[in-house]
Amino acid sequence: MKYLLAFLVSMVPIVELRGAIPFGLSNLMGGPLELVPLYILCILGNMLPVPFIFFFARKILVWGAERKWSKAFNWLGKFFKWILKKGEKGGKKLTAKTGQSVYIALLLFVGIPLPGTGAWTGTLAASLLDLDFKKSVISIMLGVLLAGIIMSLGSFGIFSLF
């Protein structure tokens, strides 16, 4: 049951694998889980939403920006437009600076476990930037692997030794 819960937690935005691994290694609900199966399940759970976010997030944002909203919800259309405009503006600046290195930047963005970074945000950024799906998924997967290693080491207290 705890493996299933860790898998589901790793799919939740913001929490993702960064919260699922420490949860699985904690003493909550009967003690820590084995690292290797936990790590694999958390990676799978964290990567499962990626294709859906990549292919549908931009379409939902465009739909929301172009939709005729009632006066009570007019702010939603403005919000969707703002996200699209901000994403495209930031994306142009980023790709102009990084060129092909944008995929390395995406890997590092997803891989360094800080608040607001992760597979969900990285995938949304890749979608807004119209990046190549295959290269983006590889970068995001490598970033998730890196974040998993960092969180596993942190959960074992490795960083407290320094």
What class would the helix/strand composition place it in? Answer: mainly alpha
The strand count comes to 0
Arithmetic mean of pLDDT: 90
Can you write the helix and strand succession as a string? HHHHHHHH
Question: What features would you describe in this structure?
Answer:
This protein has one domain (2-161). The protein is mainly alpha-helical. Helices cover 72% and strands 0% of the residues. Helix 2 runs parallel beside helix 8 and helix 4 crosses helix 5 (74-98). The chain contains 8 helices and no strands. It is globular. The mean pLDDT is 90.
Summarize the helices and strands and which ones pair or pack.
Blueprint: H1 2-9, H2 16-25, H3 35-47, H4 50-66, H5 74-98, H6 102-111, H7 119-128, H8 133-155
Helix pairs in contact: 1-2, 1-3, 2-3, 2-8, 3-8, 4-5, 4-7, 6-7, 6-8, 7-8
